[in-house]
Amino acid sequence: MKLRVQEQCLRVRVDEEELKQLLQGRELALQLDFGATNRFGFRLSLHDGSHPDLQLDGLRWSLKLPARKVKDYAECLPTRDPLSFPISASPGGSAIVQFEVDVRDSLRHRRPSARGSQGRGGSTG
User: Fold this and answer.
1) Were both Cys, which of 35, 64, 69, 116 would link to 47 (CB 3.0–4.6 Å)?
2) C-alpha angle 86/55/71, rounded to 5°?
């Protein structure tokens, strides 16, 4: 899992194996150690709601995405387009959460026969 924070956007990218784990109800976790007492932790999971749930507790963040929307998104893979959700950060302020599956990994996992069926210079038929 990769996490990127840029301006008003929180972007989460997973690979196909991590997507599979999420869809099976498992939680993904990311931890960054800054020393013995400073650790940044991020957890990603799915829930039955219709909107994302972002909980921020100091250096511990938790994001729950709507399971139905992630499942629908997974059926459209591979795609370069992320699944995007607006999140109200504060009154008058908003941010965007983007979730995506690495498109190169999706191509490897979801279209393995396309590469083999293109032939190697010969014709079929």
Assistant:
1) 64
2) 55
Within a domain: 123? no
pTM greater than 0.85: no
Q: Which SS3 state, helix, strand or coil, does residue 119 take? A: coil
The pLDDT tens digits of the residues spanning 58-86 come to 999 999 999 999 999 999 989 899 999 99
Cα separation, 92 vs 76, in Å, equals 33
In this prediction, residues 29-40 reach a mean pLDDT of 89
Q: Indicate the DSSP class of residue 102.
A: -
In a domain, residue 7? The reply is: yes
* Three-state SS sequence of 19-43: HHHHHCCCCEEEEEECCCCCEEEEE
Q: Are 13 and 2 in contact (CB under 8 A)?
A: yes
CATH of the domain at 83: 3.30.1360
Q: Is the pLDDT of residue 57 over 90?
A: yes
Tally of domains in the chain: 1
